[in-house]
C-alpha cells in the first residue's frame, strides 16, 4: 500500500512538470464517435456528433446548459438505454468495437466504462459495501481478503482511504458531499474500468472539495481515460488536455485545451469562452 | 320550505353585504388619495362575514333550543287530567297527533275536543317562533352589516381579517375529524366499561370459549365471552391474506415501476386499481359462490378435506382485495427512490434485477414495511368477506382449512336483530370494537412512523 501511495505521488510530479498538454493528441485513440444523434421522443437532442477521445488523457465537454454535453456522455456507456423514449443513432466505438452492436452486453460495457454522476449518489449502505458493490456483482473477488484489497486500493486511489479507514462500516450517506463524491469515484474504480465518465462531478461541491476532486482527476489520468462534463471553463482548463465545445446539440469545436482557450477557431466558441453566451 | 326561505333570505342578505362593502371601499379608493390597505373584494368578503356570523349564530341557537321549546309548548296544550293518564309511549303518540294537526297533515280516528284547539295553537306557535327567529337572524345580520360598513376605512386590514377567518374555517374542518374520532373512542370506551361490569376483563381477553347466549334463549347464564377464538381467526385470515397480497402486490408494483413499457403501464395500472373499487360484499359472495366450492373440490381431488367456507377461502379472497392497495402504495414508494441511486447501480454495470434487489428494494424497504402494516390493519378490520366466507365458527383451532370466525363477524352477529344495550350480549360488541380499534391504531401509528422516517431520508 505504501508503494502505491508512493507511485501516486510520483505520478503527480510527472503531471505537473513533464506532461505537456499538447502530447494528448499523440496518444492512441480509445473512443471514436461517428455522427451520433439522440432523440428524446420527437425532440432531437444531439445532431451528428463526431469526436475522437485519446487514451489516458482527460477530455472535457463544455457548453451552456442544455447543449447536449451530458446527453452525449451518457451515450458512451449507454446510460440513455434506461431513459424511456430515448433513441441513439450513429456509431460509437471503444477500441474499434461498436458499443451499440446487437450482440454487445451492456453490463460488460458498463464494467469497462465507469461513471461518476453530477450529484454524489452513494447507496444507502456502508462505505465498504458501496465500494464492494461493483466487484461483488461482477464476481471480481475470489475471497474476502481479495475484496478487502480491492476496496482499500480503490479508496486509496480515490484519495479517501485515510479519511474513512476507521469507519468503513458506517453508512456512505453520512460523509460530506466531497467525500461522497470521492466514494463514488472509488466505487467506479473498484470495478476496474478503462474509461471513467464524469458528469459535472463538482457541481454540487464547495470550492475546497472541488479542488480535491480536480487534483484526483489529474492523478487518475495516468491509468484511466477520462471524459469530464463541466460547466466551469476554469475547471476544463485546469484538468483537461482535450476540450470539446457543445452548443444546442451540436459539437462546435474540439481540440487541445490550450488551443481552444487561447485561440478558438469558431466565433461561437470564442463568445462562450469570453462569457458572451451561456 | 322553511329552510329554503331561510337560505334564500340569507343569500340575498349576503349578496347585499358583499356589494355594499365592495362599493364603499371602492369609493374610498377613488374619493381621496389615501392608500387603501386591502382590495375591494376583501372588504366585501369581510362585510359578508360580519353579516353571516350573527345570523348563523341565531340559527344555531334556534336549532339547538327550538325542539325543547316546541315540546314543552305542545305538552302544555294537553289538559292536565289527560296528561297524567298517559304513559311515555302514549304521550309520544298524542304529541305526534297534535303535530300532524298543526301542520295540516290531518289524523285518522275521532278528534278529541281539546285536540282541534291544541293543534291550531301549536301551529300558530310554530309559525310565530319561526318568524321571530327569522327576524332576529335578519336583524342581527343587518346590524352586523352596518357595523362592518362603519368599520371600513382606508387602513382597515380587511385582507388580514378575511385570511384569518378562512384559516379558522380550515382549522374547524380538521377539528371535525379529530372530534369525531374522540367521540367514537369515548363511546367505545364507556360502553366497553359497562360490558366489563358484567364480565371480568381477564375472562374476556384470555377466555378460550366464545359462547354468548341471548337472554331470550337461556335464562340467567350470561354465556362465555372469550376473545381468543376470534382473535386467532382474525389473525389467521389476515395472515393468509398478507401471504397472498404482499408478494403479488409488491411484484406487480416492481413490474409496473421498472419493467413495464409506458403503454403497458397506462393500461395495467388502472385495471389493478379497479380491483380496489369493487365493493367488499361482492368479493364476499365471489368467495362464497366461486372460490369456496372450487377449493373444496380441489381439496377432494388431492385428498384434503377443505371446507367451502374456511379461513383459507376468506384469506385468499381478502388477499386479492388487498393487492391493489399494496401495489399502488409500493409503486409510490418505489417512485420516491431517487433516480440517481438507480443510475449509480446501472453505471457500475449492474443488471436490472441486481439494481432492484440490491439498491431499489433496500432503499424502499421502510416504506414498503409501512405499506404492509397499513394493509394488515385493513385486513384485520375487513368485515363483509369474512361474514360470508369464513364460516362463522368461533372455535379455537389452528387449521386454516376449517371454518373460523373473526372479531368483526362476531360484532355483526351480536348487533343483528333485536338488541337492547343492557346486557353483555350486545355490549360485548363494544369491547370487541375497542380491541379491534386499538390493534389497528397501533399498526397505523407504527406504519406512519416508519413511512415518515423513510420520507425524511430522501427529501
UniProtKB/TrEMBL annotation, chain A:
Similarity comment: Belongs to the ABC transporter superfamily.
Biological process terms in GO annotation: phosphate ion transmembrane transport
Entry protein name: Phosphate transport system ATP-binding protein
Pfam families for this protein: ABC_tran
UniProtKB keywords: ATP-binding, Nucleotide-binding, Phosphate transport, Transport
GO molecular-function terms, A-Z: ATP binding; ATP hydrolysis activity; phosphate transmembrane transporter activity
Cellular compartments per GO CC: membrane
TrEMBL record, chain B:
CDD domains: TM_PBP2
Sequence intervals crossing the membrane: 43-65, 127-148, 168-188, 235-259, 271-295, 301-326, 359-380, 427-451
Name of the protein in question: Phosphate transport system permease protein
Gene Ontology cellular component annotations, sorted alphabetically: plasma membrane
GO molecular function: phosphate transmembrane transporter activity
Membrane topology: Multi-pass membrane protein
Biological role stated in the UniProt entry: Part of the binding-protein-dependent transport system for phosphate; probably responsible for the translocation of the substrate across the membrane.
Residues covered by the ABC transmembrane type-1 domain: 231-447
Family to which the UniProt record says this protein belongs: Belongs to the binding-protein-dependent transport system permease family. CysTW subfamily.
Lineage: Bacteria, Pseudomonadati, Pseudomonadota, Alphaproteobacteria, Hyphomicrobiales
Keyword Oxidoreductase among UniProt keywords: no
One Pfam family per UniProt: DUF3708
GO terms (BP aspect): phosphate ion transport
Domain of life assignment: Bacteria
Organism the protein comes from: Devosia crocina
Keyword terms, alphabetized: Cell inner membrane, Cell membrane, Membrane, Phosphate transport, Transmembrane, Transmembrane helix, Transport
Family matches, as InterPro entries: MetI-like, MetI-like_sf, Phosphate_PstC, PstC_N
Cell location: Cell inner membrane; Cell membrane
UniProt-listed PROSITE patterns: ABC_TM1 (PS50928)
